[in-house]
Amino acid sequence: MSQMKRSLRFSLSIAVITFVLAAIFTIISSVLLSGVGWVFGMLIVLCIVLIGVIFDMFGIAATSADEVPFHAMAAEKVSGSKQSIIIVRNADRFASFCNDVIGDISGIVSGTASAAVVVQLALGMGFQEDSTNQITISIIFTSIVAAFTVGGKALGKYFAIHSSTKIILFAGKTIAFIEKYLHIKLLPALKKEKRK
User: Which one of 57, 117, 134, 141 is at 20 to 30 Å from 181 when CA atoms are compared?
Assistant: First the structure.
């Protein structure tokens, strides 16, 4: 029962975080896209896609990584090694946040941003709204974004599986930097495992 409560609490917290982050992502992308040309708009969309791809890679790397190398690094006082151990021990939650929260938000926001860029491009070229030309541009642009997303995630999966230790150490170092210099606690404290 306590496991069920923990799962429900985690699901609820993830839902709230997703709501807040989705709102932030949408506001930022809307502000950046308002009054800019379609070329800059396309770059913004590709940046949003890239964020989704990178976080997807982090999530998969967490589930693929082995905890043992990080213990050796922690013994040598390597920066980010303790954070890396916490990430690996909480791989399911870390992957859920990276893949489901950031990944899905990036997908939704990039789709919305793509639609805005298509309208700007079509109007800039003098096409009428809902014309055949605008629909054609929409299909081409959406296909390009989808190709970048799927292709990028496929490449990210390869690196996540084959270089999981390096990727998680990079994530650990980034989190260690944020926690040390920005004083924002992102991960729980590392609990010492009891030896039998």
Answer: 57
Write the pLDDT tens digit of every residue in 166-175.
999 999 999 9
- Taken in order 83, 85, 86, 92, is the CA torsion positive or negative? positive
> 3-state SS of the chain: helix, strand, coil percent to 5?
80, 0, 20
| pLDDT attached to residue 194 | 46
The full 3-state SS of 81-112, as one line of letters, equals HHHHHHHHHCHHHHHHHHHHHHHHHHHHHHHH
- With H, G, I as helix, E, B as strand and everything else as coil, classify residue 20: helix
pLDDT one-digit tens code per residue, 26-45: 888 888 877 777 788 888 89
The half-sphere exposure of 162 on its side-chain side, counting CA atoms within 13 A, is 6
Q: What is the DSSP letter of 187?
A: S
Determine phi and psi for 112, rounding to 5 degrees: -65, -45
pLDDT over threshold 60, residue 193? no
**67-80 core/surface letters (b: 16 or more CB in 10 A; e: else):** eebbeebbeeebeb
Structure-token pair, residue 155: 């490449």
Torsion, CA 129, CA 134, CA 138, CA 139, rounded to 10: 130
User: What pTM value is reported for the model?
Assistant: 0.84
Other C-beta atoms lying within 10 Å of the C-beta of residue 2: 6
